[in-house]
Write a structure and sequence with these properties.
Two copies of one chain form a homodimer. Chain A is α+β, with helices and mostly antiparallel strands. Helices cover about 35% and strands about 20% of the residues of chain A. The first copy, chain A, has 18 helices and 24 strands. In chain A, the strands form three sheets. In chain A, strands 3, 15, 16, 17, 18, 19, 20, 22, 23 and 24 form a ten-stranded mixed β-sheet that branches. In chain A, α9 packs across α11, α11 packs antiparallel against α12 and α11 packs parallel to α13 (about 325-340). The relative contact order of chain A is 0.10. The interface between A and B is large, with 46 and 46 residues.
């Protein structure tokens, strides 16, 4: 391969320890509660049985053709748990699954439990809808993670044979099919497989999938005709990001999870192949997605219909789909761009999505999940759900893509916290715990002590094997305007150190060097671009990386009637009994006197208003008490 | 029949002359352009051919089972034109249609060109969906109007035989079917037929249909089973207002046109039978519809899905369905309640709907029609229409119910302007022209000279045959706070005269008595109930009965960015070249500097704004220049 375009590479999950602080308990809940919960749901709904070769009579309302991907994401999450610490029972469970999978593998390397059990004659006949490459991609990711965690190779060997089979079936060479997946995933999985195996052929295969996508004539249309389908396809080609070759795509389009996975795969391929036109396309699509089509929570894909991106500045709040998987996909994309560009813009978006639109996807107790993540809930009759989902988190879904996705992200969070590059160690996220990194050819221990994002102070302890000169890059969040730094107790002017969003401290690091970073977190009033008409005249409250929202349980009903005066003071304070101990934001607001208004719809005279307390809680934690109205964007008057 | 509950009865169309002023040109366009345009569309799309007994191969995308109603509404409109003035060609055209209809009538009286031509064996087997009673009702209305206009009885005789047939088929007596229509209309038509014929049996039949509706077990469900249908019905019973007996219905529910027709029929039956429980139900449903579920334009039925009422205070603007036919139906309902109660509340709503959500349904040139009447249009990609219809008015629709409905309302406008009661003449609407009424047993000429609603002054000339004491009731619109009256030049304190929204002038009227009514029309800022969350922080501008809106053609794009300061002066001025001469409202507003904002989505700092002119035009006239954004509710800051 040509030299990689990546400036940085992420830390290994096993090299990072997360404990206490904001994330420790969440990650422990993920390990101890969420991962077992998900497995129980697999058993309940029949997907593990499918791996065992047992059919059920009916899969009504579920999507058994996606099951391999669900189980794979769970296996990947479990592998990260093992990478962070031993768990013999969990390892046995994975081994059993690997055994079932290996048994189901065809002699030509093909793996897909659904097709093998139900439609063996239809392999590779419907790339558009049937998710074989997507499922295979997730299994590859799981296999790579499991090999890294345990050193065991069986799973990885199974998936290498699968990848080789895919390589033998798809491509531009004579006799191969010029197909590509309807749901992207295999692209980034193949790059991971290359990292795990050193086999450059997998990057070439990923590159083929990326480059073939969207070419005319459409493979999906040809394939549909071969299946005997006539009439219009159920979704436009843009749903699959297949409306144009990827380098000609100018805006983030279609199904938002697919889009995020594609762009992540594009970034991976660009990084490995040194393809700067592909990287330029990634940057263009990044800007479209994050500067014109992203909720303040980091959610993307505003429409339920097609689970998709719509158009610039179209960010409705109540019907915001903002699928948990799409925010996770945005973290993936941001994380990859961050490794390539070493630029805080990507870290800022990664942090925004992680602390808001991703974390909102799972309940505090780890047993309930959000598929859609609306930014407003209004009072409506039962069953009237503008996102297609009830506002309360659910224990499972007919299409359960989100729960194992959030489980694997949380289980691998360490990877997103640290990176290393030539002569550089980077801290992207402030998370209590530590990491053992290799910088400049030697081992460096980095230790963070912090209650971030609740509190502004981050203490970082640097322990190199021996004194050496290298750069420690600390992300200065875009939301922070008054960051301050001291090194070994000595205040250090920050401005001269900051380039591309990181304070870059280049010095000879010694054992016991200590950095104190302060990231003051006043309550900020956030406004949306004036073209986002749904948010016009409204303000969102943000403190540090956390976006806040008002809930009915704290503020009563009719949240849209609540007006926060422009100049009103806003106070952040720790409320130990609120949501397991959270910082709430309080301020004086105004609301209408509904009694005085009376039973008329329209008035031309003044009506009575009264003072009211506004109490806002972190959006990520909403809906953990009782269901009711919710609003991120509060009227400002 | 028992004594009617009606205090008033409307003037006959032929007794009222409308000329000049606001309405004269619109009614002339209706006569000279719209009515011929609609007939041409019937010929083009095959509905007249169906009356001739000629089938077409395909009716794809149209609803031939509703065609009789479309043609009937057109015939009714044409009859009113004839009632207002002779037109031999038009009369011949109606006679030819009557001839075709009479020829198609079955020996038992059944009339329905669609069933007769296509499904003769399926008569009365699907009352829920197939609109036979609805079509018949419209034909009855047309027949009554045509008989009144021309004195010719053929059409009326055909429809009497039809009504007798219906009476023989439906009812509670043994051997009859206990059905009722899926789309209401026959109820009010039968009461009209009673008025035209004196045959009380038709009122009893209407009463039966009203009383039978919504009883358990459901006729629609029984009927569906008899057709062999299994599984869920495509719409809930509330769609047809058949979820409960009408006296137990507490809120306006379901398809909004059907609801309005039902409530109109209920009011008619209550009035004729003296049934006060039924009248109480009408009042309840009136309050639900108009105090909790009506747009400021008088539009009702906020959801496209099911063309229906949703729930209290749910009045989204961009996706407002607010079907033209539903606003027309609200005029019907209001007009009936007004005759019963003689109360200005009904006149106010009738006027609001007429001048806004009804009149917006037809273009100034009379050749384009709105089906949905949204209160906001935002910039969206082509084909993305939240109401299901493009924002520009269309020359025709697959389901063309609205064009002939608005044509018959405009052609019969005089009926809504004047009423008479015992010793009373009433003026509900201020419309230039005159009327010949019978008050207290003698002929009275009332003449209005006014440019209302553009200008505040209304001159009314009263000419009784001979001096006599009676009451002239003049509606003082609810929007008017400073009305002033003078009689024969002498200012007359208004407050002591006003009861139930009307100034009631009881005196001995003499020829050449002259009243000058002034209804000052400052620009009003209207606010919606604080529970209407879509309008929170927004203001609508109203002057007189006209609700205004901002259009992109006058104000540029991004209308939601426009902020009207709370205290900003608003100036109304006649703009002779605007929309054929209209009064526009102008004021100073603020908008954001989009350049300065830049290519980011969210900001926490202040951004630059600049002064901007707001120009608003009457909502009824929007979309007559070029398509673009539109907003009734403007942000107020």
């Amino acid at each position: 391969m040509t030299k990689t375009l990546r400036r940085l590479r992420p830390a290994a999950v096993g090299a990072v320890r997360i404990e206490g602080g904001f994330w420790g308990p969440r990650i422990e809940t993920n390990r101890a509660v969420t991962i077992p919960h998900i497995y129980r749901q697999f058993e309940r709904t029949g997907s593990i049985d499918a791996w065992r070769g047992k059919r059920r009579h009916s899969y009504e309302g579920t999507f058994p053709q996606f099951w391999d991907s669900d189980i794979a994401k769970w296996m990947e999450a479990a592998a990260y748990v093992l990478e962070s610490g031993r768990d013999a029972a969990l390892e046995r469970r994975i081994d059993r699954l690997v055994g079932l999978l290996a048994k189901s593998q065809w002699s030509d390397g093909y793996v897909n439990t659904y097709f093998t059990l139900h439609r063996p004659g239809e392999r590779w006949t419907n790339l558009r809808d049937m998710h074989e490459l997507y499922c295979g991609g997730h299994l590859i990711e799981a296999a790579v993670a499991y090999a890294a965690a345990t050193g065991k190779k069986t799973f990885l060997d199974v998936m290498r044979r699968f990848a080789d089979h895919v390589d033998s079936v798809f491509g531009r060479a004579r006799g191969k099919r010029r197909g590509y997946p309807g749901h992207e995933e295999i692209e980034l999985a193949l790059v991971r497989l290359y990292h795990a195996t050193g086999e450059a052929r997998y990057v070439r295969l990923a590159e083929y999938f990326v480059n073939e996508r969207g070419r005319a004539p459409s493979y999906f249309e040809r394939e549909a005709r071969q299946r005997g389908e006539t009439g219009r396809a159920w979704a436009p080609l843009s749903y699959y990001q297949a409306h144009a070759p990827v380098r000609e795509q100018r805006s983030a389009e279609g199904h938002s999870v697919r889009a995020m996975y594609l762009y992540s795969g594009m970034a991976d391929v660009a990084a490995e192949t040194g393809d700067r036109t592909l990287l330029a396309a990634c940057r263009r699509l990044w800007r479209s997605a994050t500067r014109r089509r992203m909720y303040v929570t980091g959610g993307v894909g505003s429409a339920q219909q097609g689970e998709r991106f719509t158009f610039d500045y179209d960010l409705p709040n109540e019907s915001a789909y903002a699928e948990t998987c799409a925010a996770i996909g945005l973290v993936f994309f941001a994380h990859r761009m961050l490794q390539i560009e070493d630029d805080g813009e990507y870290g800022d978006v990664m942090e925004r999505a992680l602390y808001n639109g991703v974390l909102s996807g799972v309940s505090l107790d780890g047993t309930r999940f959000a598929y859609a993540n609306p930014l407003a809930v209004h009072a409506r009759p039962p069953g009237d759900h503008p996102t297609g989902f009830p506002p309360e988190r659910q224990e499972w879904f007919p299409c359960p893509c989100c729960p194992p996705n959030i489980a694997r992200l949380l289980a691998s969070l360490g990877r997103y916290v640290y990176s290393t590059g030539p002569g550089q160690g980077s801290i992207h996220l402030y998370v209590q715990g530590g990491a053992e990194l290799e910088v400049g050819g030697q081992r460096v221990l980095l230790e963070q002590r912090t209650e971030y994002p609740w509190h502004e102070r981050v203490d970082i302890f640097v322990t190199p094997e021996r004194p050496a000169r290298w750069t420690l890059a600390l992300r200065i969040p875009g939301w922070c305007r008054q960051a301050a730094l001291s090194v070994n107790g000595r205040p250090t002017p920050l401005a001269p150190l900051v380039r591309r969003g990181y304070a870059r401290l280049t010095r000879e690091w010694q054992a016991r060097d200590r950095i104190e970073l302060r990231l003051p977190m006043p309550v900020e009033r956030v406004h949306a671009h004036p073209r986002v008409w749904m948010d016009a005249g409204r303000v969102a409250l943000q403190r540090g990386p956390l976006v806040y929202c008002a809930e009915e349980v704290d503020n009563g009903r009719d949240l849209s009637d609540l007006v926060l005066p422009r100049g009103a003071a806003l106070r952040a304070s720790l409320q130990p009994r609120l949501l397991g101990g959270a910082i709430a934001i309080e301020g004086r607001a105004q609301r209408s006197d509904m009694q005085e208004w009376g039973d008329v719809l329209y008035r031309t005279d003044r009506w009575r208003t009264a003072g009211a307390r506004l109490l806002a809680v972190p959006y990520a934690l909403w809906g953990n008490r009782q269901v009711g109205e919710m609003a991120v964007w509060i009227r400002e008057g």
